[in-house]
Every structure is written in C-alpha cells, then in structure tokens.
Structure to design on (347 residues):
C-alpha cells in the first residue's frame, strides 16, 4: 500500500513530466501565440494603469453564501482597476442560458472572459469557440472537459480539501483504530465532490481509518439538515464527522443540536465566517473547517487583466501567466481562526 506522502510525490512527478512535455512540443492548452508578448513583470508595472480591457464575467446563480462571495469578490476586484471594463452576465444555473451569455461576449469581442461554469462539460464547447476567436478564457472552480477551452484555469483544491480534513481527523483519532468516521458530502454527481471524498478516504487510509457512514446533501441549509438527520439516525455512535460545505453545515449543526448529539467532533468545509465563529466559541462540536477560497473569481479577474494586457505574474520569473493554478486548502482551528476570519464569507 502506497503512503499518502508517496502518492503525493508521484503526482508531483507526473505533473512535472507533463509540463516538460508540453514545453518541449511547444503545445500548451489554449495556445494564444498571437497575443502580445508579456512585458510587465514587476508588481509596480502590473498595478500601473494600462490599456482598457473589457472582461466578460459569467457565473452560476448565487444561491448560497460561497457563490455570493465569489461574485461580490469578483466585482470588487474589477473596481480596483480603472483599466477594467467589466461586463457581468446574470448568474444562472441554466447551462444553456450561460452558453448564450458566452456567445454574447464573443459577439461583443470582449478582450477576455472569466467563466465559472454551472457545468464544466456543458460549457466546454462554447469556451473553445471563444478561444478560437482569440478571446482568452479564464476557467474558475469547475473545470472544462478540454484543456483547449481555457487559457488559464484557477481552482480550489478539492482533493486537497479531503486530504486536509482527513489528516486533521487522523491527528485527533489516529490512536483509535476503531473510531467511527462519518461524512456528509455535497452533490455526489459533481467531480469536485468526488475529488473531496477521494482525498478524504486516502488521508484516512494513511492512518488506518475509513469512512463508516456517508450521506450526500446539496450545498444548501435544508439539504444539510435533512442529510445530517438521516446520518444521525443510522449511526448511533460517531467519533468524527466531516461535512464538505459550511453553507449546508448550518443545517447540519441544526440537526445535530435537535438530536442532542455531542459525542463527536466535526470538521467543516469552505471556510465560512459562521463556521469560524462556531470554532472560535469553543462551545460547538465544530472544531475545524477546511478553506475552499471564495477569491477564485476575483483571482480570475486579475489574471484576465494580466493576460489581456500582455503582462506576467510579478512573483514568477516565467514571462507568461501560468495555465493552471490550484489554491491551498488549509485547516482552520481555534489556534489560527483569527487569521482567516476577517476574509471569510457569510453563509
């Protein structure tokens, strides 16, 4: 059985080999060789006002706190730059409507598109059309099914979230091989949920634990409460619980309170301010949460500006903006909650 550390090294090595192969062949995902060669590589040059760029932004409907934070952070980031003309499409969970929004951006000949797709596979074809029209696409959070659909992909680390949650639980329960570990996932059909669960299982395996009871919810308060009630009824004893999403965690905590259960500790996911205040209080079963950054679209706006203006990232020697960026998934506990609470989103 390979240890988690060994698997990580193998993944890093495989990624390095792929990157090297792409460089040697001169073929990169979303080749935009007709763009202006990047020039500015210092922080001062990048922050300096340049030619005005029109950026189209489209994302899902803000039907829970994390997505609301994603949208508001993107708008706030664009407002920082007088050389950004931001065109915002109405948030939607209808893939066909979002496709038509991207088509409008293409017809309007925007300089770049920042796209958090309601469904990555469904939006892939129209994103490729934008790329073929010479419009760089910045793919946020939910990946397209083709590397040719985006110039830059910026993601939270879903697999890493699971690893972080599992590692924390291992540290707390590693000396108890009979511990009962439960899991409340998000929407099971989404690759991001599958990645989170796989990372969680892999981390637990590394310390001899496994998930004993698992249910799925839907990232909503109501869904979290219903799933938690089901889980608690099926599992008379639990030692640790990981809930994938702090928005649905509001409902999960309500169900736990209604059931009068407090024999276990809980780890959340995403990093909402609500969850962090629970951790801070010291009076809750919620002892930790794993960050899934709500800054991704804001980062996408900033990267779209750099790409459209032919600039690079100031902290890298490389003269091109990278084509893939994966953000970290740190664990927030009572020991470091003060560091993360000021930038957390409200559920």
């Amino acid at each position: 059985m390979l240890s988690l550390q060994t698997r990580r090294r193998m993944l890093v090595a495989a990624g390095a080999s792929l990157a090297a192969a792409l460089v040697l062949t001169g073929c990169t995902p979303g080749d935009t060789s007709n763009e202006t060669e990047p020039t500015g590589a210092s922080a001062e040059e990048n922050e300096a006002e340049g030619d005005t760029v029109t950026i189209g932004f489209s994302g899902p409907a803000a039907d829970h706190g994390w997505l609301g934070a994603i949208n508001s952070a993107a708008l706030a980031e664009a407002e920082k730059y007088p050389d950004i003309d931001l065109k915002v499409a109405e948030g939607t969970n209808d893939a066909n409507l979002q496709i038509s929004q991207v088509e409008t951006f293409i017809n309007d000949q925007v300089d770049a598109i920042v796209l958090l797709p309601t469904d990555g596979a469904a939006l892939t074809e129209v994103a490729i059309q934008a790329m073929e029209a010479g419009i760089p696409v910045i793919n946020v959070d939910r990946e397209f099914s083709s590397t040719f659909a985006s110039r830059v992909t910026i993601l939270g680390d879903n697999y890493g979230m699971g690893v972080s949650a599992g590692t924390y639980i291992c540290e707390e329960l590693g000396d108890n091989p009979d511990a009962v570990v439960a899991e409340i996932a998000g929407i099971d059909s989404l690759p991001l949920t599958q990645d989170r669960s796989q990372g969680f299982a892999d981390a637990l395996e590394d310390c001899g634990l496994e998930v004993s009871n698992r249910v799925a919810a839907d990232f909503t308060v109501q869904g979290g409460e219903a799933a938690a009630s089901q889980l608690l009824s099926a599992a008379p004893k639990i030692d640790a619980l990981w809930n994938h999403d702090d928005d649905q965690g509001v409902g999960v905590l309500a169900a736990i309170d209604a059931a009068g259960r407090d024999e276990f500790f809980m780890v959340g996911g995403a990093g909402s301010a609500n969850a962090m205040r629970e951790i801070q209080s010291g009076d809750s079963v919620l002892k930790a949460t794993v960050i899934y950054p709500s800054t991704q679209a804001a980062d996408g706006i900033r990267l779209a500006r750099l790409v459209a203006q032919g600039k690079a990232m100031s902290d890298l020697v490389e003269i091109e903006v990278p084509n893939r960026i994966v953000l970290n998934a740190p664990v927030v506990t009572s020991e470091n909650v003060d560091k993360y609470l000021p930038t957390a989103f409200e559920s």
